[in-house]
Design brief:
Elements (H helix, E strand, L loop, with lengths): L1 H18 L3 E9 L9 E4 L5 E3 L5 E6 L2 E7 L6 E6 L6 E8 L16 E3 L8 E7 L2 E7 L4 E6 L5 E6 L9 E4 L5 E4 L3 E8 L2 E4 L3 E2 H7 L3 E5 L2 E7 L5 E8 L2 E9 L1 H14 L20 E2 L2 E2 L19 H11 L6 E5 L2 E6 L4 E6 L4 E6 L8 E8 L6 E7 L2 E7 L6 E8 L4 E7 L2 E6 L9 E6 L1
Parallel strand pairs: 1-7
Antiparallel strand pairs: 1-4, 2-3, 2-5, 5-6, 8-34, 9-10, 10-11, 11-12, 13-14, 14-15, 15-16, 15-17, 18-19, 19-20, 20-21, 22-23, 24-25, 25-26, 26-27, 28-29, 29-30, 30-31, 32-33, 33-34
Helix pairs in contact: 3-4
């Protein structure tokens, strides 16, 4: 009798352990046209856990043996998706197709009384913008005209130039730590400068060189430059202070568990030779896509998101490596007054250094644990003192200021109650952003909102 009770107890414990073990769900959210939906909100029913899709519509989250996902996106009908893991199954890959609601999205207009448009009818194709010498430089692209314009905050034109040749392929802008402006195309970077009321473009450099030489320079503190370097699999990050060619490690962070897992996947996939080279990295059509544990023949499933499916094909681990785990470990660095602030969301800390690299103190934070935080973006206001965290819930953005003494959020959360918002900044105590009336409309204008 005692033996039977012991066996029953062990069986119960085994079931209990299996029922509450963690399983990985990865997937992609698309519409009926096969377009990725970003940012869609994914929540686990009866749980505080959730995720937000990236700009490719992809997401990953952990769940128990049985789960029900609730997927929502502005302008689309919510979707409930039940997931049941098979015995010994640890991972699954799903595709979620959402249907548009029966409304005319073109009727959605900015209507809040505290929101006003900056760029009027002459500039309705704003692709990107940056603040430059108390003015605004805008990149304006439509089918026929590609222009760079400098305007003031009342939309009065200061100068404007038409983009020609290879510069006309520029799609976005980048502002470095010395306030230099660059136009970036898919393969080149062009520095913009003006002198004697004329605009000049420095000769383009390869985007690979730009990413290697310019982007890693995070800021300048005194006579030293702060430089960022990523380690193996982008799962470790290092900040250095460089002065007269002397390099001193300022701060480092490692996601050791993911780094080791990436290493194992890489070694396993290359045991018998590299299954595909770096040039083939984006060509994943020959790799199996698993939808609810069955191979799918639907072309809509060719969305190139991988997950570790060890029971199907070892090569699939390599896809998982490149598309999911190789995403960089994110930390943020700002120079505020005469100090260096490193915002480490992985460790939930803010570390404060002086310009000589001495750690003054660190601050514990709690806001990075919020599921709706956009962890890859913090906003430094134009006064170079105020830092804001960016949040995203059901397709709508909000920001809230971070207290640099306590590490907590302070003040009220400021919501931008409009969908399809891009590139949010804070200037002169106002929120600036690009907005378009609906997802299909290419017209974009620059708006500002009082805090």
């Amino acid at each position: 009798m005692k033996i039977c009770k012991v066996l029953i107890l062990f069986a119960f414990l085994g079931f209990f352990s299996n029922a509450f073990s963690q399983h990985l769900i990865c997937g992609k959210v698309i519409n009926q046209k096969g377009e990725a939906l970003y940012p869609a909100n994914i929540k686990l029913k009866n749980s505080k856990s959730g995720a937000i899709t990236n700009n490719e519509g992809s997401f990953c989250l952990n769940s128990l043996l049985k789960a029900e996902l609730i997927v929502s996106f502005m302008g689309y009908e919510a979707v409930n998706k039940k997931i049941i893991f098979l015995p010994q199954q640890k991972d699954t890959l799903i595709l979620i197709v959402m249907n548009e609601k029966k409304i005319d999205l073109k009727e959605v207009e900015i209507s809040a009384s505290n929101i006003e448009v900056i760029t009027k009818d002459k500039r309705i194709w704003i692709t990107d913008y940056e603040f430059w010498n108390d003015n605004i430089i805008t990149l304006n692209l439509d089918e026929n005209n590609r222009k760079l314009s400098l305007i003031n905050h009342s939309d009065s034109l200061i100068w404007e130039t038409e983009l020609n040749g290879s510069i006309a392929r520029s799609k976005r802008m980048y502002k470095d730590f010395m306030s230099n402006i660059y136009l970036l195309s898919d393969d080149s970077a062009f520095q913009v400068t003006n002198k004697n009321e004329s605009i000049y473009f420095f000769p383009g450099v390869a985007l690979a060189d730009f990413n290697k030489l310019i982007l890693p320079s995070m800021g300048k503190c005194g006579d030293k430059i702060i430089y960022r370097v990523y380690g193996p699999h982008n799962k470790s990050v290092y900040y250095y202070l460089i002065n007269q060619e002397k390099k001193e490690l300022l701060y480092s962070q490692r996601d050791v568990e993911s780094e080791i897992y990436c290493d194992d996947i890489f070694k396993e996939a290359n045991k018998n030779g590299n299954p595909f080279s770096a040039k083939e990295e984006g060509n994943l059509d020959s790799y199996p896509i698993v939808i609810d544990n069955e191979q799918s023949k639907d072309k809509r499933n060719n969305w190139k998101l991988g997950i570790s499916q060890r029971t199907i094909d070892k090569r699939f681990d390599m896809v998982f490596y490149f598309k999911i785990l190789a995403l960089p470990l994110e930390t943020h660095l700002f120079k505020i007054e005469d100090k260096i602030y490193i915002f480490d969301h992985f460790a939930s800390k803010i570390l404060v250094y002086d310009c000589d690299g001495k750690l003054l103190h660190d601050i514990n934070t709690f806001y990075p644990k919020r599921k709706d935080i956009v962890s890859k973006q913090l906003i430094l206001a134009d006064n170079k003192k105020d830092v804001y965290a960016l949040f995203l819930n059901d397709g709508l953005y909000s920001i809230q200021q971070i207290d640099l003494i306590s590490g907590k959020l302070k003040g009220s959360e400021i919501k931008i109650n409009q969908p399809f918002v891009e590139k949010i900044n804070v200037y002169n105590n106002q929120i600036y952003f690009i907005y378009k009336p609906n997802k299909e409309d290419a017209r974009k204008r620059l708006y500002r909102m009082k805090k």
